[in-house]
Amino acid sequence: NAGVMQNPRHLVRRRGQEARLRCSPMKGHSHVYWYRQLPEEGLKFMVYLQKENIIDESGMPKERFSAEFPKEGPSILRIQQVVRGDSAAYFCASSPQNIRAQPNQPQHFGDGTRLSIL
Amino acid sequence: GNSVTQMEGPVTLSEEAFLTINCTYTATGYPSLFWYVQYPGEGLQLLLKATKADDKGSNKGFEATYRKETTSFHLEKGSVQVSDSAVYFCALSGLPSGAGSYQLTFGKGTKLSVIP
């Protein structure tokens, strides 16, 4: 789907475990965005990262959630000590340039990771 | 803040029927507007976009016109097919200056089912 690769597609965790979600942006894209989709809801912005920098994490829960986008490798969304309410689909999107500079360019989405908490 | 309101679904239509999915928005300034489509088990795909007032976005027979006076961006298609069955999301992106401009704000989505 437009080259953004997310894995795993499905992830099952028990309460209290850690969940790691990976996102490789489209080739040539250095800007990554994470969104969460709760059942029957639209997507909600979580965090925006560039390589080695978190630009905006205003949508991230204050505790247990973290994100990184290292110089090498995929972007990682990490959820510690998962709870039932973390069950959702998590989508990653990427863009080639700073959307603040060019807000009209679309973001390209991956197929998402569906996280289920037992 | 920014918000997007879509018509409630689900919407069920017969093949070749006319489709309208209403979308209105609240935003300051001049947002860009998008329609995304999500097929079962997949991510979102950009369907069409419009970046300024009176622009018409179109793709695969779908159209939407950016109406600033009514703050609307309704999605239309003259003749739907079974393969159009999916969830459709209206979204906007913020201003070129200030915080939050890169955040897409989504509506809740409208599920469309087209029956033969």
Description of the structure:
Helix content of chain A is 0%, strand content 47%. Chain A has 118 residues and is mainly beta. In chain A, the strands form 2 sheets. In chain A, strands 2, 4, 5, 6, 9, 10 and 11 form a 7-stranded mixed beta sheet that branches. The radius of gyration of chain A is 14 Å and the shape is globular. The relative contact order of chain A is 0.33. Chain B is mostly beta strands and 116 residues long. The interface between A and B is medium-sized, with 34 and 30 residues.
What labels describe this entry?
heterodimer; A: 118 residues; globular; B: 116 residues; mainly beta; 4-stranded antiparallel beta sheet
Which sheet architecture does the biggest sheet of chain B show?
A: 6 strands, mixed
N- and C-termini, Cα separation of chain A: 29 Å
Global morphology of chain B: globular
Total E-strand runs of chain A: 11
Separation of termini of chain B?
41 Å
Radius of gyration of chain A: 14 Å
Low-confidence runs of at least 5 consecutive residues of chain B: 96-100
Main β sheet profile of chain A: 7 strands, mixed
The secondary-structure class of chain B comes to mainly beta
Number of contiguous helices of chain B: 0
**Structural category of chain A:** mainly beta
Mean model confidence by pLDDT of chain B: 89
Gist of the model:
With 118 residues, chain A is mainly beta. Helices cover 0% and strands 47% of the residues of chain A.
Write the layout of secondary structure elements.
The complex is a heterodimer of chains A (118) and B (116).
Chain A: E1 5-7, E2 10-13, E3 19-24, E4 31-37, E5 43-50, E6 53-56, E7 65-68, E8 75-79, E9 88-95, E10 108-109, E11 113-117
Parallel strand pairs in A: 2-11
Antiparallel strand pairs in A: 1-3, 3-8, 4-5, 4-9, 5-6, 7-8, 9-10, 9-11
Chain B: E1 3-6, E2 11-14, E3 19-21, E4 23-26, E5 32-38, E6 44-50, E7 56-59, E8 62-65, E9 75-77, E10 86-93, E11 104-106, E12 110-115
Parallel strand pairs in B: 2-12
Antiparallel strand pairs in B: 1-4, 3-9, 5-6, 5-10, 7-8, 8-9, 10-11, 10-12
